[in-house]
Predict the 3D structure of the following.
Amino acid sequence: MRRTIAAATARPEADSPVQPERLRTEFAFELPRGYVDESGTVHRCGVMRLATARDELIPLRDDRVRENSAYLSVVLIARVLTRLGTIEDIHPGVVEDLFASDLAFLQDFYRRINAEGHTRAAVTCPACRENFAVDLAGGGRLGES
């Protein structure tokens, strides 16, 4: 007996306890210092998306990466940033002009969302020594609520 397309694509019953989990693919962040554009505007808030296999493979063909393997992170970060302040056209030149602390932040953020699958970090309160987790994608800076 042949199954119809409608039967094959039917949605689960409304009272079904199992609902598919939605995958979060974009994560907001706030840079420690911020990108200063040519007009002097500082851009601190942005969005990074999850990387694809293609995002990690294509930079390996880039001549700048072949000449200097440290440039890989610049090209890779430029591929996965979807917005930085009001800037939507993110390219390696933008990433090159970031302060070193901001690039280090983005490299760590990339690692957290792609390798670890989350943006939480374990921290210890310096005052009371209590351990807890913070969400680095919450848009705030560490120590702020």
Remarks:
- Residues 125 and 143 are 9 Å apart (CA to CA).
- The first helix runs from residue 5 to 8.
